[in-house]
Design goal:
The chain is of the alpha/beta class. It has one domain: Metallo-beta-lactamase, Chain A. Helices cover 38% and strands 23% of the residues. The chain contains ten helices and twelve strands. A seven-stranded mixed β-sheet has the order 1-2-3-4-5-6-7. The chain has a five-stranded mixed β-sheet with strand order 8-9-10-11-12, with helices on one face. β6, α5 and β7 form a beta-alpha-beta unit. α6 runs antiparallel to α7 and α7 crosses α10. The longest helix has 23 residues. It is globular, with a radius of gyration of 18 Å. It starts with a helix and ends with a helix.
Length: 291
């Protein structure tokens, strides 16, 4: 049941994408760096980053499988050619779905060791040699491309156990994948090695790396700032504390859900996949499961 629920973030938009003509829009994050999103509010997957330049074209994630051709077209529109590299931030299919298509068009896929292992073990994602990363790293790796230093680093046990974030130093832009759900309750995938404590640490690391001018290519939600991340981290810490206070009183999970301790966050942070109830149950599970 837990695995089924986790797949809903991929399956529901996947079915929609198969029935719709999804195309991509773009937002300029910094000179030569874009965030690609589904046009007209359509869901094409998680936020995609694109670095263009005379030397190399680099994608950060690549959305859902059915939107791969549209993504390829958008990259060629903005960069003049297909991507040379794809950096996957984690293994979920709304961020890795077009790997195989883009690899067949010349891209080299790079990711954390654990991401490759998880994709390799999943027959829905291990669909061919092009679907999997061919270069992996354990802690960090740096790309020197287009006069940018792109520092790719692992954050441990956060959204999953294979998360990576990318700092474009010269541009002051960070692409953190699903470590940032700006203004939304985050999906912390406890079944894929993620943890609430790790997620909080990862968010704090991003905040500590940033200044007021830093822009974040959110995994979900709009382009974010340091102040936005601070707001979201404060929400998560407070939400966890509220749930813990009720657990400390001996209340059951169902009783805590009925008490609705996150009610004051509902109007802003509730969304279709991670509802207020599901966020509450994630926090309950995290606080009551021995690590």
């Amino acid at each position: 049941m837990k695995k089924l629920l986790a797949l809903l973030v991929i399956a529901a938009p996947l079915a929609y994408a198969q029935d719709a003509e999804i195309t991509y829009d773009h937002e300029v994050v910094a000179p030569g760096i874009y965030r690609l999103i589904g046009a007209d509010g359509q869901f094409a997957g998680g936020g995609v980053g694109l670095l263009t330049g005379d030397e190399y074209v680099v994608l950060i994630d690549d959305g859902l499988y059915p939107t791969g051709k549209a993504l390829l077209a958008k990259v060629e529109e903005l960069a003049g050619r297909p991507a040379d590299f794809i950096i996957n931030t984690h293994a979920h299919g709304d961020h890795t779905g077009a790997n195989e298509l883009l690899a067949n068009n010349g891209a080299i896929i790079v990711a954390h060791d654990n991401l490759r292992k998880r994709m390799q073990a999943d027959e829905n994602q291990n669909t061919g040699p092009g679907a999997l990363p061919v270069i992996t790293f354990s802690n960090e790796v740096t790309f020197h491309v287009n006069d940018q230093e792109a520092f790719v680093f692992h954050v441990d046990s956060a959204h999953t156990d294979g998360d990576a974030a990318i700092l474009f130093r010269e541009a002051n832009v960070i692409a953190p994948g699903d470590i940032v759900f700006r203004g939304l309750f985050p999906f912390i995938d406890l079944d894929s090695g993620g943890s609430v404590d790790g997620y909080k640490r990862a968010m704090q690391r991003l905040i500590d790396m940033a200044d007021d001018e830093t822009r974040f290519i959110s995994g979900h939600g709009p382009i974010a700032t340091k102040a936005g991340l601070e707001t979201d981290l404060a929400m998560l810490k407070d939400a966890e504390a509220r749930v813990k206070a009720l657990l400390d009183k001996g209340m059951t999970a169902d009783a805590i859900v009925a008490a609705n301790p996150l009610a004051s966050y509902h109007d802003q942070y509730n969304w279709g996949f991670i509802t207020t109830e599901r966020m509450t149950r994630t926090l309950i599970r995290s606080l009551t499961t021995e690590e």
